[in-house]
């Protein structure tokens, strides 16, 4: 009896020491911070994270919403082993899970965007013993049409530069082809002139020989 009690005490003490030695770190959250989407379309609210502890069944993900015009925070989505969608409110039947905890992804999809969806969406991930950390935020702006961003301008500039390079290459190839054609035509004319000149000289020689024989 005393042996079992001593064993339990040692295991309990060992567990307490292991818990104390386990480094508790904050969960790091990564989001796009700002997102712009067109009214009536769908949007993926991307949220990824990093954690010192391995991902397990204790992982929880909570999404909330703060309206742009103020007011209380609203529940959007919850994940713990399985996804839990809201049963009522503005996000009922309009949000779905699009994450993968094994890949440290806690993203969701928001369907049929409306103008009153403008506001800040928060993504909180807890992966015990890592439960602390800054909550990720995405400021969503629902607009009539998407404005050109720096990425769009960069893509346009790269596309224009590529098109210009293709045009330059085509012009150079055509110019070289034209030069080769002109050189070939000139060479052909030179050959024709030489042939005619040789033929004329041969005719003069024949006439000269004929005149000499006649004399």
UniProtKB/TrEMBL annotation:
One of its GO terms (biological process) is cell-cell adhesion. The keyword Disulfide bond applies. It comes from the Eukaryota. Residues 1-26 form the signal peptide. InterPro entries: Ig-like_dom (IPR007110), Ig-like_dom_sf (IPR036179), Ig-like_fold (IPR013783), Ig_sub (IPR003599), Ig_V-set (IPR013106), MPZL2_Ig-like_dom (IPR029863), Myelin_P0-rel (IPR000920). The chain crosses the membrane at residues 151-175. Residues 23-141 form the Ig-like domain. Pfam families: V-set. Gene3D superfamilies: Immunoglobulins. PROSITE patterns: IG_LIKE (PS50835). It is a single-pass type I membrane protein. This is Ig-like domain-containing protein.
